[in-house]
Specification:
With 150 residues, the chain is α+β, with helices and mostly antiparallel strands. The chain has one domain: Thiol Ester Dehydrase, Chain A, CATH 3.10.129. It is built from 5 helices and 6 strands. A 6-stranded antiparallel beta sheet has the order 1-2-4-5-6-3. The longest helix has 11 residues. The radius of gyration is 16 Å and the shape is elongated. The two termini are 25 Å apart.
């Protein structure tokens, strides 16, 4: 699927659409993505800042999706674990940027070449437009070469 089509579909996905999460860009080769979470009255928490669940949701699928598309159909790629550290209250729109380096893709391929499972952590900072860090999200993905490709 073309990245532009996939980006549009993600923007219509109910968890993103309802919570004002928008994929701003997705590179044609699925190596980079940028996401924004708009602060709206319906996605604020009790103290009028970004709801923590939405901060996690805006980051949640991207490392897995980028790796899945970069590695191709010969690999299982799943989310394994995640953690979030709230650094400051998000009282405005916040942004996350993901870049999956080709060297990391090569490392994943090499580590999974014999059919072993590979667990890899990725870290993303969620920031305001001015660069203030609001949250740090860590995601662990699972990668394994499918039996037919071993």
């Amino acid at each position: 699927m073309r990245a532009s089509t996939f980006r549009r579909l993600l923007n219509l996905w109910p968890p993103f659409l309802v919570n004002a999460i928008r994929v701003q860009s997705l590179s044609d080769d699925y190596s980079e993505a940028s996401v924004v979470l708009r602060l709206r009255p319906w996605n604020r928490n009790y103290v009028r800042s970004q709801f923590g669940g939405n901060l996690f949701a805006m980051v949640d699928p991207f490392w897995m999706l980028l790796a899945m598309h970069q590695l191709g159909n010969d690999y299982y790629v799943w989310d394994k674990a995640g953690a979030i550290d709230f650094v400051a209250p998000g009282r405005e729109d916040v942004y996350a940027h993901f870049k999956l380096e080709s060297s990391v893709v090569d490392e994943l391929r090499a580590a999974a070449a014999g059919g072993e499972k590979v667990l890899r952590w990725f870290e993303t900072e969620v920031k305001t437009a001015s660069g203030e860090v609001i949250a740090i999200v860590r995601k662990q993905i699972y990668v394994r070469l499918k039996p037919k490709a071993r």
